[in-house]
Design a protein that fits this description.
Length: 276
């Protein structure tokens, strides 16, 4: 099971953030070599997944390449999760691989750092966490929410900027984590109220579910193309490709993912292993 990832057999585990099982099943054979696909149970969101999978002491046999700003090697906690206290080393691929036009970490840059990390730490287990297929979508970029990260490479106050970013992303957490959020978005839309929109609401307002699914699938294939390059370099390793959680596009009245949801399209994730 994905929630017991650390008990699975793998040398390298690749995490596709917010990857649904059904969409993965439709496209993975175009990019991954012969292996075996399983269905697993994931968490409700990344935060839930981190605390479910890494709830023990620091794992000195585990290196983490992160395309997600919340999982960083800067000793800056995301809520009450501090990656530097959990893993042997964290590579901040989200920082060096950030693209301002789209508003996300490019998968090819995350792969590049993943290759470097594997060569540097051949005897440790490695996790590579891609932000895709999670939005922002490359076919529908929406970078404005992440504007606080601009200039981060040269700014010595990295900690302050990250903390500000997390505060803004979580400022409406009670609404975003509640099933009432769709009603809240509908209320705002009906009265043409545009204040305090997060990325979830922006995409929900602007695109119908079919268009969102198209963008999402493209993001997944974008990541898988890059992942195939990594796998081709380390064919002797046992590599797993899985996810922390899935994504909803109207199923059961849900959009995207909600903390502690039991929606099956969110909780059902792929687990592909290179060793059949």
């Amino acid at each position: 099971m994905c929630l017991t990832l650390m008990k699975e057999e793998w040398d390298v585990a690749i995490i596709l953030d917010a990857c649904r099982y059904d969409t993965f099943k439709e496209v993975y054979k175009k990019y991954l070599p012969s292996g075996q696909l399983h269905k697993r149970i994931g968490a409700s969101d990344t935060f839930d997944w981190l605390h479910s999978v890494f709830n023990g002491r620091k794992n000195n046999n585990l290196v983490y390449v992160s395309g997600h700003p919340g999982i960083n090697g800067r000793n800056i906690a995301w809520g009450y999760f501090n990656a530097t206290k959990k893993f042997y080393k964290v590579y901040d691929a989200w920082l060096s691989g950030w693209n301002w036009e789209i508003g996300t970490a490019l998968p090819e840059e995350v792969t590049k750092i993943g290759i470097q990390a594997r060569k540097t730490h051949p005897n440790r287990r490695l996790i590579i966490h891609f932000i895709q297929p999670h939005f922002p979508y490359r076919k529908a970029p929406c970078p404005s929410t992440y504007s606080d990260l601009k200039g981060v490479k040269k700014n010595p106050k990295l900690g302050f900027m990250l903390e500000k970013l997390f505060r803004e992303l979580m400022s409406f957490s009670d609404l975003n984590f509640s099933r009432l959020r769709i009603a809240y978005w509908m209320f705002k839309k009906s009265f043409n109220l545009d204040f305090l929109q997060d990325l979830n609401e922006i995409y929900w307002r602007k695109y119908n579910p079919q268009r969102l699914k198209e963008f999402y699938r493209d993001n997944l294939e974008w990541a898988l193309e890059s992942i195939s390059n990594f796998i081709s370099r380390f064919g002797d390793d046992e590599i797993a490709v899985t996810s922390d959680h899935g994504e909803a596009f109207g199923e059961g009245g849900d959009f995207f993912h909600l903390y502690k949801t039991n929606n099956p399209v969110v909780r059902c994730v792929p687990y592909w292993s290179s060793k059949a």
